[in-house]
Amino acid sequence: MRGKTVKRISGAVAATLSMALLAACTAKEEPAGSASGSGKPGSDKKLEEYADEMKITAYQGTAYAGPSNGPTTEYAKYIKQKFKINVDGFVWPAGEDGQKKISLIAASGEMPDIIQYRNDSSALQIYQQMADAGMLLDIEPYLKNTPNITKYFTKTILDAYRNPTDGKLYVLPGFTVNPDLKDQLTIAVNDVLMIREDWLSKLNLQVPKTPDEFYEVLKAFKSLPPVNGKQVVPYVPLSEGGEINYHIGGMFGIHRYADARDDNEKRMIDAHEKPEYLQYLKFASKLFREGLIDPEAYKLKWQQPYNDMIPKGYVGVASMWPNDISGFNKGFEKSIPGAKYVPMPLPKAPGVTNSRIGHINTLGSSAIVISKKMSDPERLFKYMDWMNTNEGWATMVWGPPSKDNGAWYIAEDGKLIDNFELDQKKMAENPKWGADVLGAWAYGLSGILKYTHDLVLDQARQMNETRALAKKQYDSEIYMDTILDIYLNTPPGPIRKAKGVDLDKIFQETEARIIMKAKDDADVETMYNAMMEQAKKAGFIEILKEDYGRYTAVKEKYK
After folding, report:
1. Which residues, listed in sequence order, are joined to residue 371 by a DSSP beta bridge?
2. Contact, 79 vs 454, CB < 8 A?
3. Regarding the domain with residue range 54-179+363-377, which homologous superfamily does it belong to in the CATH classification?
4. Of the four listed, 24, 30, 272, 520, which is most buried by Cβ atoms within 10 Å?
């Protein structure tokens, strides 16, 4: 895996869009920042033209611990020199509970200039508390002059973040996805299946297109001789069996029911009650009992297959991040010449077109709130808008541009060039060079991670062929629905809050038990029927009726 790439997160920015593209949005999805709001009008002063130094304090409550020497990173020095912006006051969690931390900040009434944290319902409730207490800045007036931020919003996306008390906008979401810009998504599905192409060729088989063909390929892989003393494992899912449900379930379309409703009974429809789910259980159970799925699948974390099993060459099919497939093939050049993985499309049962495994949350994955006491919000928003340009995002991701001492640089023709050889040399000398020396990935505020050109630098080189192929194969699995995203992000009702955890536990534990223990299809059906009876006793129908009310309320509000 390359030093510049973050596990499970691939990202950067697309080429800057013109404001004309914003005007092309549909009537229902007007670009954000067009609504009138109170506040100071925008200034024409450029970010580079400010004479005084502006200090920014920020708590970045993400999982990343930050550089060990923030004020001395190349990023901090570069931004101070380029824009006279001082980011020495950025603070990252040190093993603390981020939500507890911002709850304490909210209770104290005192906050840094910026808080960056999650955008889930529990975090939004804390932001509302802070807004109602008069702690937060109404950001809407400042969005008017931030085209590089607002082009990734829609009116509905921003409306979803308005404060219920006064209707103002205090939360700036990060990594949102404007559905009108779908064609710019280059890593929409970040978990794909990969398969040993050399084994397919050896066995005279084609890439499977259906679950039945997938089954036949796995059986053929199992018949192969051991590799370096290791028995072949036909299929290894990652994440403690979670990707059995994700990929194998996706083959049968079980993920298409997140917003399905029964308007006659006035309740949501759950995938567990659909025939496709039972088909999935039978198929996954057959794979498991015939030894076609790793027997330890429900215990394996992603690290063991990634760092040990796959590199040793005895895995036929695995779930993987597109960026890393080429890395495994590179390693095989020395260890197992001729071995090669290629991404493969998701095999699908008849009637399944879009599996929805590529459901993208248009609301984004993080949020920032800004103190009402912030000294110069207008200048801050100009800085954040710059961060969402190609140059700004590359600087945040990999540190400042430098041909002699950076991970990338800007050529005379303006292209962003990947300084790959120097980067690899520096990383070999100091594995923390990116984080602690350059300040890579440490200072992000707003962001557009879903819009990528192979980590920005594809404008200077061709996109990785393997990654491009995976994009093409999984484009049909993308699904976006902002109304669904708002519904999923609203707080649960009292019934779900009281009974939902136990219900989820019944489904998760019983599904794994059925797949691992069922003796045949009849046994699967018996165990499945028992699970559904147990679920109904646990409040299954009551919860679905309550969820229906929550969904319809959201749909009515944002229609």
Report:
1. 136
2. no
3. Periplasmic binding protein-like II (3.40.190.10)
4. 272
